[in-house]
Design brief:
The chain has a single domain, classed as 3-Layer(aba) Sandwich (Rossmann fold). The termini are far apart. 45% of the residues lie in helices and 14% in strands. The relative contact order is 0.14. It has eight helices and seven strands; from the N terminus they run E-H-E-H-E-H-E-H-E-H-E-H-E-H-H. The structure holds NADP nicotinamide-adenine-dinucleotide phosphate.
């Protein structure tokens, strides 16, 4: 599967969708996997499918729970897992007409503040002697504001900025921060979308791509092409051209 074999991994948000597919891929490759999510019944049922996966129920929005989880793992294994993937997120489709402050705050709390909570817990417990790869699963919707992405896109933009800001500072402490930016994946999250999603991937395919990118050591694992290529191009367009394309997208998605 990978050039690098991870001995231990911790997938936060690993009970469904992309996270579950990454757990499966890692567990089958022989990695000891700790899996976290809020719904402990679903989490335990899922982990029971693997001899080398264990459940650690956790709400990433709760700073105390994040600290306790890190302490527990350290007490059990004396070191953090080689690979930690911050994959937990929620999504509510939203546009200008349905802009909902409470829902925006809820998304920000899980998708962004959850990452801050976990990074803070990891940094305060981390000793310098072992390198740990910490990947955050973000999204190309965080690269530039896209029509329909008003609530979710800013949460991912914030995480990308956070990781870029911390990357070089935390290297000294042995934390190797990375980004994974997948395009559309068929999960309960995208089941809420009522538009055609280009290059929609199965979670198993996306998990393989994500883990391969992480094993290769690169900072940014973005896929699939050519979808990502066009979005990266959009990211660099001057505003006039960018908004011209955005207007076309809005028109296309407007109900007559
Ligand atoms: N699907 C896509 O097209 C797509 C595209 C780009 C990026 N992404 C990103 O990929 C990641 C996985 O998405 P997905 O589509 O696989 O979603 P998903 O199936 O809904 O999985 C989300 C996971 O996160 C857990 N979770 C949610 N809130 C949590 C919290 N507060 N604390 C701890 N765990 C929590 C969920 O379990 P519980 O509900 O039991 O807590 C579940 O295990 C997300 O970061 C998402 O933003 C997805």
């Amino acid at each position: 599967m990978n050039k690098r074999i991870w001995k231990q991994a911790w997938i936060i948000g690993g009970s469904t969708g992309l996270g579950a597919a990454m757990v499966q891929e890692l567990a089958h490759a022989g990695t000891e996997v700790v899996v976290s999510a809020r719904n402990s019944e679903r989490l335990t049922n899922f982990c029971n499918h693997f001899v080398n996966a264990s459940a650690l129920s956790l709400d990433i929005t709760d700073q105390d729970e994040c600290n306790q989880a890190v302490s527990m793992l350290l007490a059990k294994n004396e070191a953090l897992p080689d690979l930690i993937i911050l994959n937990a997120a929620i999504y509510t489709p939203m546009n200008a007409r349905s802009l909902d402050p409470a829902e925006c705050a809820r998304m920000m709390d899980v998708n962004y503040q959850g990452v801050v909570n976990m990074l803070s817990a990891l940094l305060s417990h981390k000793s310098d002697d072992k390198e740990v790869t910490v990947a955050t699963v973000t999204s190309p919707s965080g690269w530039r504001g896209l029509p329909g992405g008003a609530g979710y896109g800013p949460t991912k933009a914030a995480v990308i900025n956070l990781v870029e800001s911390l990357k070089t500072e935390v290297e000294k402490q042995g934390l190797d921060l990375r980004l994974v930016n997948p395009g559309f994946i068929k999960t309960r999250l995208t089941d809420k979308n009522d538009f055609k999603m280009p290059q929609l991937m199965e979670p198993e395919y996306a998990a393989k791509k994500a883990l391969k990118g992480l094993a290769s050591g690169k900072f940014d694992t973005s896929f699939p092409n050519p979808f990502i290529f066009y979005l990266k191009l959009l990211r660099h367009l001057p505003y006039r051209m960018y908004f011209w394309i955005a207007r076309k997208l809005v028109k296309k998605n407007e109900t007559p």
